[in-house]
Request: fold
Amino acid sequence: MNETTRTLTFAGIAAVTLVAAYFTDRASQPVQLTGYENVGEEFYPEFTDPTQAKSLRVVSYNEDLATLKVFNVEFKEGAWKIPSHHDYPADAEDELAETATSLVGVIRGALESRRKNDHERFGVIDPLDDSNTNLKGRGQRLTLSKEGGAPLVDFIIGKQVPEQPNEYYVRKVDEDAVYRTKLNVDLSSEFSEWIEPDILKVDRDRLIEILISHYSIDEAQQKIVYESKTPEENVTVLTRKNSTTPWEMRGLDKKTQKLNTADVNQLVNTLTDLKIQGIRPKSSELAAGLKESGALKPRTQLDLFDLQNKGFVLARGPQGNTQLASNEGEVVLATSQGVVYSLYFGKIFTGSTLDIEVGNSSQKKDEKADEKQDDAKSDDAKPVENAESEKGNDSALKTSRYLLVTAAFDPAYLGDPPQKPEPPEKPADLKETPAADKKESETDKKEASADEKPSPQAAYEKAMKAYQSQLKTYERKLKEYDDKVAQGSELAQELNERFANWYYVISANSFESLKLKRKALVEPIEKPEADPAKANTTAPPVGKPATPPAGKKPEPATAKKPAPAKSEDKKPETGSPAKDSEAAKKPAAENSASKPAPAPKETPAKEKPQTPPEN
Reply:
């Protein structure tokens, strides 16, 4: 090997050694871990103004049913609505503001993982990620957006950190890193928490009439079928004058029957606290007709099909007239404001919470079973529900019923309008008294004797004064009545605006409480049992003494002695209060028998008062 070759060999060995040393040094350096540099930083530092939030979406995943539940609230067209529930109006402004405020400045806590494979363990898989086939470990996705849809906050909230209240495993949608994060979000995705759940919003103290119609529909013949041949049993009417008077039933035999107040109170409680379980939109044509006239008048075949599908049909009544009727009768209630609510009860159906709230194709699978259950119900039957529904399980099937509500105004429930008084008739020969003579006539009236008959002029003037007073009272009451008419009409229109767009879904239990039969509201009057001892005792004839019982002598009748006359000169004896009270308790006859009445003393002539001489 020549010198050149040896030199090149050593140079190559040195180069290889240097390269090996470099890689060995790099391999021995600590690995730079990403994610740790963000600990203690805000997830969304640019989100500082909670009023920017104009929409909220919550997506959760049900592992048992392998289904998504999407709930969102959005401000659009000048109002808060729930797009996930057919754009139903929401009372969301305050709730959304509180949620947005709680998400401002959320800090990344300790880093738990940087690997995507750990997402299932921490429960932070995106529920909207279709590429991930895992059925477990999906979290709740919470998104706040500003107007226009740009996201302000987009979290995946996973499981709660063990033994750490208000701490959860959280990650951003576009990051794999999972952090422990403190969250104080009091967020509900329940439909009932974001709306006004009270359907009627009626004050129980204003209720003055409740009418329950007991009928069903023969859909084959499109005919109303009443349950009884007796008219009074087909319509139950409860009335009262005001909130302080008791309820009464028309046609009640008060000699043998009385009202079951417990069931009546339950009926009133259900009406005044009727809750929304779910909603379905009406067609725009049907809703428009309700808003215009307050009457339900189907305009198209689509309207008729939509109504019939939910148990509301146009059927012939007893007089042959065609009217809107419902599958399970109706309840009408009137208030002292003149507002009349008509509640039509439609078909029964069974479904999960999501089916009940917004409707779902899965609810049709039990339609036939529901119809059989509806037909098999007796008068006192209760709805059959899945046992799991009592535990509040969203996957449990629950029984519900469609409800259609309309409102109208009837001034008859305001009471009779005030009647204008008639002016007194002026006598034909009566002349107008000059103003100068009026003072003299008033003086003459005062000087006239009490038994003197007033002149026609005075009688007419007195009647005119009374008429003027009555006229002022009438004008005041008429204004009050007109104000009530205006307010009642306005309230009925507002209610129709709210009712017109929707079919409601109520619980089957609420329906059972409202559709009480007449016999359930009446109970017999129990007659008191006769006392045998008193029944055999006869009263003695008037004027004859009662015959004493055998073996006992009659007591002699004693005449009452007159009470002793008090002497004007004799002073009462003083003694202890105890003795005085005991003496006062003794009967007058006993006191008079123990002491003889003293003779009255004559007053000496000189002590008699002198009668003054007449002037």
Remarks:
- The mean pLDDT is 78.
